[in-house]
Amino acid sequence: MLRLLNRTEEAVICLLLVLTTLLVFVDVVMRFGFNTGFMWTQELTLHMSAWFVLFGASYGIKVGSHIGVDAFVKLFPRTGRRVLTTIGCLLGIAYCGLILYGSWIYLAKVRKIGIELEALPIPAWLAHGMLLVGFTFLSVRLLLLLRDVLTGKADGFRHADEAKESMEIVE
After folding, report:
1. H/E/C letters for each residue in 30-62?
2. What was the pLDDT predicted at 139?
């Protein structure tokens, strides 16, 4: 199941990145090369970017690409780091839960009203469904990290350590 989650995340991120780039490229060529364009590209690009950001946030927890301000946490021994990470995970899961709850209510109301996007004939609840999907993926990643912390496999969030990487390159 975890493998499916990983593959889905990676595939969606790659697909969104390629499609968004192509869409923006075609729109720029149409506007500046032919003095025309499509009315719907900006709205579609906006929604695709939102999907990309939410999937990217989840994927960032998995691969440790988030930049963290963890100097304080690193002052503690392993047990202290595990406790602080557990608190961080629980707070993150609570936050995701609140967003998921609010999103569910919002999307239900938008669906009931029957609102569509301004420039595309797509139901707004479907386009904004990225809130449910993205925060569900984020919740799963936080739960997996919490599991790893509680079982002793991890003692903190994985963060990108740019200073360490820079020093390795210099050496």
Report:
1. HHHHHCCCCCCHHHHHHHHHHHHHHHHHHHHHH
2. 96
